Amino acid sequence: MCAERLGHFMTLALVLATFDPARGTDATNPPEGPQDRSSQQKGRLSLQNTAEIQHCLVNAGDVGCGVFECFENNSCEIRGLHGICMTFLHNAGKFDAQGKSFIKDALKCKAHALRHRFGCISRKCPAIREMVFQLQRECYLKHDLCAAAQENTRVIVEMIHFKDLLLHEPYVDLVNLLLTCGEEVKEAITHSVQVQCEQNWGSLCSILSFCTSAIQRPPTAPPERQPQVDRAKLSRAHHGEAGHHLPEPSSRETGRGAKGERGSKSHPNAHARGRVGGLGAQGPSGSSEWEDEQSEYSDIRR
User: Fold this and answer.
1) Is 0.85 surpassed by the pTM of this model?
2) In the record, what terms sit under GO molecular function (predicted)?
């Protein structure tokens, strides 16, 4: 439940995050020409950005976060890769040997994949975002993110900041993967993010928590409706146990109610036809009941 609530918070955070960068883009980096303007409107990486990123990737070293810095300023608003790299490097000393090995191998894997895949994909922003998501996931899983997180849960939790979830989509992808790394990691991250959310948004987080819990609450079970087949089985079981006992009055009333309650008096032939149909369905075991009911109806006619 907590992980699901956190997922709702992240979704809302991503929605809110789309506004601030969008407001600042045109003011701080106005399009330089019609080509750049049209490419932004179509959701494509501009030709100028593409050339700049490719040139940056060629010159970036294999060590450090230079490759990720190439993606910080672009018209597709793909940010956060450099911040994740810097966060891992700044906290590497707090990890154990396994965690340090993961940081080195995962960052190297991501940098290598970015450098080789960027020139092979479309300039469409959704394609670039999907490429970034896929290579992050592949590198994190390949080098066992969950094993490093389970052995270094406290450090991982310290690295997650609520404000980054509002601004950087790759950061959200990382946290979503961490939430699959076992109950201990999931609960620690969820608690930390909820506390930070309340510190930043105050009572709004409580409202969101209440709303999501109400949405996630399982619906109350509807009134029990036994299928007709189950009722028939129960009826046969009851008759088998009862043997030659007389049927209860309630069973006759139920039978009459099923006929539609057409009136307090009904034609005896109709009852007889109904009883004959019931006898055919019950077989020889129901003959004694049929005879008893016939005697009762004869008493009624008198």
Assistant:
1) no
2) enzyme binding; heme binding; hormone activity; protein homodimerization activity
